[in-house]
Design brief:
This protein has 173 residues and is an all-beta fold. Helices cover 0% and strands 38% of the residues.
């Protein structure tokens, strides 16, 4: 599983958005700044949602390219430390109190269309000490060019594990 872009040029790393791009707030328009990775897909992070002591954000994958983009699977999510180092935070393909994961389903996105995923912070009995992350690295898939979203000023900086649902046209219920 993952994102397959058979008709697009090879993916490359996308530049991180400017440091002043907030990690919360409305999804920024990926084409407003003209930043569309070579993969043709960009992932943005929405506002932090809170329910029953739980936190989550909606991730939105937008086809910012000019050709249809094939999406299958889950977002690529990586917690990053102060110096950009990858932190040992487990990312599970699973649902949360915000909605259950219905598993991957192939979607062919026409230019400008979107799919969404729910990323939730979870604590486990085995979790032990929480890890403090300074940012999240998000991409449509591991090889699709990532963007970094700072977590400064959020209580979501502290994490045990993350659950993420598969990309879908509709959010899970």
């Amino acid at each position: 599983p993952g994102v397959h872009a058979d008709t697009l040029p090879p993916p490359s790393a996308a530049p991180a958005p400017p440091a002043d791009v907030p990690a919360q707030g409305p999804d920024p328009s990926p084409t407003a700044t003209g930043e569309c990775p070579a993969s043709g897909a960009v992932v943005t992070m929405g506002e932090v949602q809170a329910v029953m002591m739980s936190r989550a954000v909606v991730l939105t994958l937008t086809n910012c390219g000019t050709k249809p983009y094939r999406v299958v699977g889950y977002p690529s999510v990586q917690a990053l430390g102060e110096d950009g180092e990858r932190l040992p935070v487990k990312v599970n393909p699973a649902g949360s109190v915000f909605g259950r994961d219905q598993g991957p389903k192939e979607v062919l996105l026409d230019p400008g269309l979107t799919v969404r995923s729910m990323l939730a912070w979870v604590s486990t009995k085995e979790g032990g000490e929480l890890v403090m992350a300074d940012a999240l690295e998000l991409a449509a898939a591991p090889d699709a060019g990532a963007r970094v979203y700072p977590l400064e000023g959020h209580d979501i900086r502290y994490m045990d594990e993350l659950n993420v649902t598969a990309w879908r046209a509709e959010l899970p219920e």
